Amino acid sequence: MITFKSTEDLAKLSPTEPAFPTVKDLVEWLVADYTWEGHPYNPDWYGYTILIQEGDMNRNLDEIWDGCSLLRISGKASCSGTATSSPSTWPTTSTASAS
Prior knowledge:
- The chain has helices spanning about 20-35, 45, 70-75; strands spanning about 1-5, 50.
- The protein has about 100 residues and is an alpha+beta fold.
């Protein structure tokens, strides 16, 4: 899982990755739409982009929800952990791909 909270975070993903153009567009769009003179973008207020990778399916994603896997977060099973961010701030567009 890679978290993108600024355009600088795009350096975490290789430009040769198939998801790069979509992630780049999402991050730039989000930052541009929530930034104006005197009001910098704040990912904790406005949200951020998360790229779920293949290896993330069965591990706990403590970065977004303590003690839960992606399958549990998606409603396939119950979680015993606590969300580390509000679902209302999660982006509604996904860039995940299935293999």
